[in-house]
Amino acid sequence: MPRPPRVYKTPAIVLRQRRLGDADKIVTLYTANHGKLDAVAKGVRRVKSRLAGHVEPLNHGSFLLAHGRNLDIITQAQTIESFQPLRNDLDRLSRALYAAELLDRSTEERAENFALYRLLLDTLRRLAQRDDLDLVLRFFEMSLLGQLGYRPELGQCVVCGRPLEAEENAWAPGASGVVCPRCQPGETALRPLSLNAFKLLRLLQGGRFQEVARVRIAPELGSELERHLRDAIHHALDRDVRSAAFLDMVRRKPRARPANAIRSAGPR
Ligand SMILES: [Zn+2]
Q1: If you measure from the C-alpha of residue 191 to the centroid of ligand 1, how many angstroms do you get, rounded to a whole number?
Q2: What's the whole-model pTM score?
Q3: What residues are paired with 72 via a beta bridge?
């Protein structure tokens, strides 16, 4: 087998970072070409580090990595987009961190998936620029479920297989799909699914954000969608998402003005 190149270059988004020793950090990257990977950023906890600003969570950059004995080493990094509007607004920041954490928790290391890289990048751009932040997250969640192989069944009843119609269906997060009215008696762990939520779930699954973005959603319907998708994600991942709790906490507070939110709220 040919030896892999000693150094390689890839665009990537920083998902999180954690301390390593006195001066270094381990940075989790979601790369365009190699999936998710951990890499060492040397000396970034020193004041004069040239690398430090480029490995902040949520940064989109170009990274030059060298194969190390255990972890690869970041030898150079150049920021492409720092998404400053995200960092100045706790509402935007909390959602962006949630998206990054969800991707981190739901993917294995070194499993290449360009579509997921692209999905996170598009999501961060939308969260930095748009005002319909929750709709952006719902689109991210539905797309992520599809990419991970947990695409909810919205075409036919998951019990009897009949085509679903515009009626009082129910959401079955455990089965990742929808149950028709005839099959609901006797089924457990069903959630009421309003007709509007059903239509919106289908629209989200269509995968075209421009179509989704035309919709204006009342708060109650927004909460229903969030519950259904979060249920589906919990069942798919079978573990709690820490950022979801973080997001709930942020939402209960009045709109805050973070001084340097990325440092105080970012993943450790
Ligand atoms: Zn049925």
Answers
A1: 15
A2: 0.89
A3: 39
121 pLDDT above the threshold of 50: yes
* Residue 176 alpha carbon to ligand 1 centre in Å: 14
SS3 (DSSP) at 43: coil
- 164 Cα–ligand 1 center, Å: 8
At residue 63, what is the residue type? F
User: Distance (Å, rounded) from C-alpha 101 to C-alpha 120?
Assistant: 11
Q: What is the pLDDT of residues 216-253, one digit of tens each?
A: 999 999 999 999 999 898 888 876 566 666 667 666 65
What is the distance in A from the centroid of ligand 1 to the CA of 198?
A: 15
**13 torsion bin: left (phi>0), alpha (psi -120 to 50), beta (else):** beta
Q: How confident is the prediction for the chain on average, in pLDDT?
A: 90
Instruction: Please provide the DSSP assignment of 146-213 as one string.
Output: HHTT---B-SB-TTT-PBP-SS--EEEGGGTEEE-GGG-TT--S-EE--HHHHHHHHHHHTT-HHHHT
Comparing CA positions, the residue from 34, 104, 97, 112 lying closest to residue 244 is 97
Domains of the chain (ranges, CATH numbers): 7-81 (2.40.50.140), 84-152+186-253 (1.20.1440.120)
Determine the distance separating the centroid of ligand 1 and the alpha carbon of 180, expressed in angstroms.
Answer: 4
Compute the distance from residue 218 Cα to the ligand 1 centre, in Å.
29
Q: How far apart are CA 182 and CA 134, in angstroms?
A: 33
